[in-house]
Every structure is written in structure tokens, then in C-alpha cells.
Amino acid sequence: MGRIVVTEFISLDGVVQAPGGEDFRYKDWTFEFDRGDEGEQFKTDEALGAEALLLGRVTYEGFASAWPAYEGELADKYNGMRKYVVSSTLTDPTWNNTQVISGDIATEVARLKAEVDGELQVAGSIRLAQELLEHDLVDELHLMTFPVLLGTGRRLFADTTDRTRWRLTGSRTVGEGVLITLFERDRA
């Protein structure tokens, strides 16, 4: 059985919008901070540890337009691994090893989670991450918190119909005060 891991760049006030692209008042805001070698290694190790990517359409399109042009271990991983994109509009994905998921997302992702052995990594994909949290399908949260209050923008944590409990499994500070926190869903 697979595990769903949501990984996000996040501000102190919970904003996850446009950390490295897209049209937004503070576009590329994470690039203002040095994550240091340890932060860069964490992100590389995290990506290399994933079995597959599970992405929303907007994040998928950003990844699909960028990663095929890169070379190296991380690019090889992203370009070669299985990718699942949740979309009601995308019908013909062009990035290697991509499958479109549509219909009832909670049902389809639960099925996918049962079929895939290993980590299904959700990077960015705000709306998808919120829906997965709402349906209690997320097993781990990996948050890289940047020391900035943006004051505006889309936030990761939206209202949910029920509360869930999480256990901190790791934390460290890297680079210029960037905090990495790892949380595991506490189902006890």
C-alpha cells in the first residue's frame, strides 16, 4: 500500500502560492532565501525517495514544461518516474509516464494509494492537497517553512469538516532560518 506525502514550501502565515513561479504579487518568494546545502539535499533526497508524483493540473503543467529540459539525477528521476495528474480538462498529457485521473478524486486516489507500493508525492498542487487532507488521504506532511509573512495568497490549510491529529517526526533549520518539519498522520 502506498503513502501519500504532501510536500510544500510555505510561509509563516501558511501561504503556499507561487513559491517558484506563476502570476502572483510575490512570485518566486522562496528564492529570496538561501536554503543552504542541507536544505537542497533534503529536497533532492525527498524527490529521489518518491515512487510516483501525484499532481494537480497547474503544477503538472509547470513541471512538464520545465523538467524535460534538465539533465542529472533529479531530472532523470522526475522524467522517468510515474506521474498521475488530477484533471477534468487535461486529456492528452505529453510528459513521459503520465496518467490522467478524473472523476471522484477521493475514490480514485484511494484506489491509486492501494495499487502503488511506495510514496506518492504531492508537490505544490494546492487544491489537490486540500482535497486529500479533507478526505484524510494524506499520510505525511513535509513543510519547508520560510521566515516571511506574505499577508496574501492561497494557503495550504483550508477549513475541513473534521479535525485530524499529526505527530511531529522530524525538524531542523537550514540555510537562512528555513525550518523543515515532517509530520505523520496520527491515526491512533
Automatic annotation (TrEMBL):
For this protein, the record's Gene3D superfamilies field holds: Dihydrofolate Reductase, subunit A (3.40.430.10)
Domain Bacterial bifunctional deaminase-reductase C-terminal as annotated: residue spans: 4-179
GO terms under biological process: riboflavin biosynthetic process
In Gene Ontology terms, what is one molecular function of this protein?
5-amino-6-(5-phosphoribosylamino)uracil reductase activity
Source organism, top-level taxon: Bacteria
Question: Which InterPro entries does the UniProt record give?
Answer: DHFR-like_dom_sf, RibDG_C, Riboflavin_Biosynth_HTPR
Give a Pfam family name.
RibD_C
The protein, known as:
Deaminase
Species of origin reads Jiangella anatolica
**Organismal lineage:** Bacteria, Bacillati, Actinomycetota, Actinomycetes, Jiangellales
